Amino acid sequence: MPSQLLSSSRPCTARLDQCQLPTYSSSFHLSHSCHDLHRRSSVVRPRSPVSSACSATNPVHARASLYYAARCIVTTAVRPRGRAAVAACARPNLCHSALETAQMGPASAAAPASGERVTPIEELGADAVVWATQHGLLVGAGPDAPPAAVMHAPLSVLPAPFPEASFHKAVSAAAPFNTLIAAVAADSAYLQETLAPAAEFDDFTARLLQMHRETEDLRAAGKIEQLVLAINRSDYMLDEPSNTLMQVELNTIASSFGALSAIVSRMHGYTLSRSGRTDIDASQLPENRATEDIAEAMAAGAALVAPNAVMLMVVQPGEQNSYDQQWLQTTLWERHRVRTVRRTLEEIASDSCVQLSPEDGTLHVDGWRVGVVYLRAGYSPDDYPSEVEWQGRGKLERSSAVKCPSVAFQLAGAKKVQQDLARPGVLERFVTSRSDAELLRACFAGLWGLDDLEEASTAEVLEAAAEDPDAYVLKPQREGGGNNLYGEQAAEKIAARKGLAAYILMQRIRPPIHTTAMVRKGEVIEVEALSELGVFGTYLSRHGQVLLNKQAGHLLRTKAATSDEGGVAAGFAVLDSPYLTD
Predict the structure, then answer these.
(1) Residue 42 has pLDDT above 70, yes or no
(2) Which one is predicted more confidently, 475 or 91?
(3) pLDDT on residue 142
(4) Known active-site residue 557
(5) Residues in Cβ contact with 20 at an 8 Å cutoff, skipping those fewer than 6 apart
(6) 395-434: b or e for each residue (b if 16 or more CB lie within 10 Å)?
(7) Catalytic site residue 136?
(8) Annotated catalytic residue: which of 319, 479, 523, 526?
């Protein structure tokens, strides 16, 4: 796509925080037709600044659709009950809408080809919502909605630019990261030793380590974990100052949104085709087979346990992201004839229909032999409000079913382990391939442990963090979003000194900024944003022999550049997909 699409001589200079935008709590329901959505749309155009990171000289943005050239906020309220959104901007005379820039902009702005109709962003936004609801790109409408009420998942209208070389680097690292985590999870002594300092101040980590110790005899006797199944996701951001792809974290439990991300990739093919541009190369949207590849690994794991074995999916009560999960279980049945049974940890502990054999460790639910236990819960202390939930997790860990993940794999994905692997020589202890080790180490950001605050290098980096807290992130041993400490919060925690061993300190990655349209609850707003790439990997082994190890699709999450956190389910980001650039 021509790079001149990124330039405009009418820069927008008003800030997002100067605009008063509407807020609504209602959700979109499937009963509303496409005609209703278009009829009820309206547009108000606040303004937004141009980021120098989004200029045509930035290689990250060498190709982009007309949408990325607009540089203006366009708000569309797609309302199920007909009220149009109303918004006002404090500086209304400083920029033009995307459609105005396209149709009326100066010569320096990209113009559509002769006879070409560029689709307004508000129309594309409405189309995206309709397409999403027609194709199962859905989440639950929330705890206050009727039980079966759904709405479209948080999404971007168009894909985000992402460097092709960096994308393929992340893809190529998926299998080596799988190998690394499998080796770490198999080293019980290393896990216990590495996480012991964090466990002194973190009860959740301590409890997981205790469960790991309590099941060590079963592992040593070969009664559990002879079959290993992992569905990992390594998350990355581009660091603009260094022009390097850096790993944010590696998720080994409940790595979500694989199925919905695959649908987003298809949706973006549709919205790009509807954009009216003929200079868009659809091949720059990489194929995303996350649903099929993850389901394939699950089915293979179940088949190794017993014929007709089922998958037990461990879920949270009142799960709003069940449709991402349901796509996996639908694919498991339609392609592999593997049945899925859903239970919470509390139900696993107390339901008489979930039975663990004391003789051979076989697990049955509703009379079915369980082949795979797939945890989409259990990663947070909130998942264990009482001892009952811990009893449920313990029942699973003691079973001979394939756990995805086992408590060992969950511990191997801890932030403290991530930091420790970055120390000189530690990664190489677990990865025998020199080229793989070099690839993985090249992905590491700056990482520091906080076990010994008097140690010279630790004292030095803590002093630097106190002077410039915005250059670092303080991370606890938590998953799920909303847990990290930034800026003044991080500075206050560092100054207090107490309990810092439960955290790691990480270099703050500075990704390039681009403009995107986010859609939540039918409202479309264009903002300056940044993106985080996740690459899924599947791994299956039996008695130490690797049967499957590969990259298995990808996820792109995009959030407002002013937001520190990036979780979709936690409400910080939207689902996106990469448009590969030179």
Answers:
(1) no
(2) 475
(3) 84
(4) yes
(5) 87, 88, 89
(6) bbbbbbbbbbbbbbbbbbbbbbbbbbbbeeeebbebbeee
(7) no
(8) 479
